[in-house]
Design goal:
The chain contains 13 helices and 8 strands. It is of the alpha/beta class and 285 residues long.
Length: 285
């Protein structure tokens, strides 16, 4: 189905996504062969050294973070892990982190701040894990803490949404100086199925919900929620991963060079103003 979708999408950077296109891009974002965040890290970074554990509960298998080199420069990389096989997906809860995953990421970000290393995050998650255990261990607090601490992290930060970016689970790793988004990725407060179930009590109206949510890359860019949309190879990243990696590498180098040239206080002020003004709207009498 997703392969059929890829051949029917016309890549446009200006026109809003119609109902069917929004859903077709959703299928591409969820394509089973689409590169996952760790695939991007392995392709773009070297000497990855993983950091384990949150020093409070345990090590979340749905979240990875570690120091690496980006074109010879020490940086921190963070990503959620989804898994390719059914066993891996179950172990990693289909890429949905628990509180200890977010706390591990925050611990790593504080280490990066201490050693003045830029932070790169890569996201492809439908949302934070909603299990009872996760709620008992403070899922909401862990997400809120990340939002707060990322907003005032004193190092350059770049977040890249490679597939799905869902709800606070994604935002907890995306309060960054630059938020990038692949052309066929989606970024929303809720899944189209969840939206349809709430609005119309009918999950089958997911395509209608997809269009209403305005969550495709160019829609989100127009709303000011992301800073740059990265073009993908024809048919989607899964058709030519190497080309997609090369394009992302170029964009990451450009944006890192731009933000690292700013004084820290100016960087923080720009980050604050950026997120403070997202989603503002005005009405007239």
């Amino acid at each position: 189905m997703a392969e059929q979708a890829s051949s029917r999408i016309e890549h446009s950077s200006s026109a809003p996504a119609p109902a069917n296109e929004a859903w077709l891009r959703t299928e591409l974002a969820r394509h089973p062969q689409r590169p996952y965040p760790m695939d991007f890290i392995e392709a773009l970074f070297t000497d990855f050294s993983e950091i384990h554990g949150d020093r409070a509960f345990g090590d979340d298998p749905a979240m990875t973070c570690g120091m690496a080199l980006f074109h010879g420069e020490p940086v921190l990389v963070i990503a959620n892990l989804k898994g390719r096989t059914l066993k891996e997906r179950v172990t990693r809860k289909f890429g949905s982190p628990e509180p200890e995953g977010y706390r591990k990421a925050l611990r790593a970000m504080r280490i990066a701040e201490k050693f003045n290393r830029p932070v790169f995050t890569f996201l492809d998650l439908a949302g934070a894990y909603p299990g009872i255990g996760a709620e008992e261990r403070g899922q909401g607090e862990a997400i809120a803490r990340n939002l707060l601490e990322m907003s005032r992290l004193r190092v350059p930060t770049i977040a890249t949404i490679t597939g799905e970016g869902g709800s606070g689970g994604a935002l907890a790793l995306a309060v960054a100086d630059r938020v990038l988004m692949l052309e066929n990725a989606i970024y929303s407060v809720i899944s189209p199925e969840g939206c349809a179930s709430i609005m119309w009590k009918d999950a089958s109206k997911k395509q209608q919900a997809a269009a209403a949510l305005k969550y495709t890359a160019f829609d989100v860019k127009r709303l000011g929620c992301v800073d740059d949309v990265l073009p993908e190879p024809p048919g989607g990243t899964q058709n030519d991963p190497a080309a997609a990696m090369a394009m992302l590498d170029e964009k990451l180098r450009y944006h890192l060079g731009t933000i690292r040239a700013l004084p820290v206080d100016e960087l923080l002020e720009q980050r604050y103003q950026k997120f403070r003004n997202i989603a503002q709207f005005y009405t007239t009498a």
